[in-house]
Specification:
metal-binding; Alpha-Beta Plaits; six-stranded mixed beta sheet
């Protein structure tokens, strides 16, 4: 493939080539810094374990902020085991106002160079993309949000409420620093979580199709099911067989569906998504589900589609299985892992009790083996100030594209803020084609068309949300 080193001017040309109506203003210095800093961050191998360079990413960001006018005393890098987190504060003029927090993470998932077409920790600009581990998840976006704030300060903006950059160091693993940051910032007014691309570009034209903000997450939980028997010789079968009993339990759980549910975020999602859905049958199912969440025909359609089944209700699926100790012996133990994504508003104890009832097997013992890596969190409210600011910012950056609220089936730092009562919204500036989604996978990339409109987006969001 032909390697192309893009100039700042060519980035602007690519932005116009997307077909967006907005034609955002150029910020040559900020645009150059975004690309430079993103490349420097990607080059640091911020992966859990020996040699973790997340603290160096934090130091890189700290020095850039000091260079841009932040006081060293307003920037805190806190070491934690092999990683670290960063909190940098731009103090507002009204100390009575709660701060606006910009959240992202500096760590990335492991990447084996032998499997990649390019070294994952050597940033490469090629054919309009920045390649490298963390390009889309989420070093590029963390830099874009930071450099936009630097540009805002350079322009002389005076925030009324403080703006806080809060970047965690282990979001991809234990989320221990995510939890620590949320506890420190539990007095915040609102969190903008910029983790990952929020918008979708057309595969055919490259034009923006729609932009999504995330206002809720399902909770990740793992339950273990264990059945034990005395065992014995396989030539003398007994009525109770641990593997058979566990198989019966798994068959019941596999066939079970939880009660369908709606909240403000998912109701808005289905309503807006139905307007964009090209398949009339699916569009009707979305509308009918909003009108009646128990509509059997609508549920049949939505639960048959992997793209929508997780949005309907809590889901629980068997993901791991182990049993027996010898080929010629009756099993003494059989275990299985059940992975659940729990709809907001339910406790892990409640869902485990429901599964026990479904199992209908007294010999099957259930236990919660999730640990401290996940927490229950309510949905963030549909705040008019955030919704209005987001619509204004997206329109300025990308033109009048449809905006859709969403609930994620995955997990991000937002859940820790929501758990302590702080509204958090997944709302990054960037757009991406579905075919360019390689986060956690091989040859991760991000399109550089995002730089100029991204700066426009963040400038608008910061101004609106930090001015009142």
């Amino acid at each position: 493939m032909r390697h192309i080193l893009l100039t700042v001017a060519s980035l602007g040309a690519m932005a116009l080539a997307t077909g967006a109506e907005a034609a955002p203003k150029a910020y040559p210095d900020a645009e150059a810094h975004v690309l430079d800093m993103a490349k420097k961050a990607i080059a640091l191998r911020s992966v859990e374990g020996e040699g973790n360079q997340t603290p160096q990413v934090a130091e890189l960001f700290k020095q850039r902020l000091i260079e841009a006018g932040w006081s060293a005393s307003d920037i805190e890098i806190v070491p934690y085991k092999d990683t670290a987190y960063l909190i940098a504060t731009w103090k507002g003029s009204d100390p009575s106002l709660k701060p606006l927090v910009v959240s992202a993470h500096m760590d990335v998932v492991e990447a084996k160079p032998a499997d990649w077409q390019r070294d994952p920790f050597t940033p490469v600009v090629e054919n309009g993309y920045l390649f490298g581990r963390g390009a889309s998840d989420t070093k590029f976006e963390a830099v874009l949000a930071m450099e936009s704030m630097i540009q805002l300060r350079k322009e002389g903006f005076k925030p009324k409420r403080s703006l806080v950059i809060a970047y965690s160091g282990d979001e991809e693993t234990s989320m221990a620093t995510s939890k620590l940051i949320a506890e420190k910032l539990k007095n915040a007014e609102l969190v903008l979580n910029v983790d990952g691309a929020s918008g979708t570009l057309s595969e055919e034209t490259g034009k923006p199709l729609y932009w999504t903000w995330q206002g809720a997450e399902k909770t990740y939980i793992d339950y273990q099911i264990e059945v034990t028997n005395p065992g014995g010789h396989s030539s003398a079968p007994r009525p109770d067989n641990a593997i058979v009993q566990l198989s019966e339990v798994l068959a019941r759980i596999g066939a079970y569906t939880f009660k369908p549910e709606l909240n403000d975020v998912t109701r808005a999602y289905w309503t807006e998504a139905a307007k964009l859905e090209a398949d009339p049958r699916k569009a009707k199912a979305m509308r009918d589900f909003v009108a009646n969440p128990n509509d059997p025909a609508a549920l049949a359609v939505l639960r048959a589609d992997p793209a929508t089944v997780g949005r309907v209700s809590t889901t629980c699926v068997p993901t791991m299985l182990s049993g027996g100790h010898a080929r010629n012996a009756l099993p003494q133990r059989a275990t299985a892992n059940i992975n659940c994504r729990i709809f907001p508003g339910h406790t892990r104890e409640e869902i485990m009790a429901e599964l026990e009832k479904v199992a209908a097997m007294p010999a099957a013992r259930f236990s919660d083996v999730t640990g401290d890596d996940s927490t229950m969190a309510p949905a963030s409210p549909m705040r008019p100030d955030f919704v209005a600011a987001a619509r204004k910012a997206v329109t300025a950056a990308w033109g009048p594209v449809p905006i859709i609220p969403a609930q994620s089936s995955g997990a991000s730092d937002s859940m820790w803020y929501r758990a302590v009562g702080v509204p958090s919204y997944g709302a990054s500036a960037s757009m991406m084609k579905d075919s360019d989604e390689f986060a956690h996978g091989l040859n991760e990339r991000v399109s550089l068309v995002n730089i100029r409109p991204g700066i426009t987006y963040y400038l608008s969001m910061y101004k609106d949300l930090a001015s009142k």
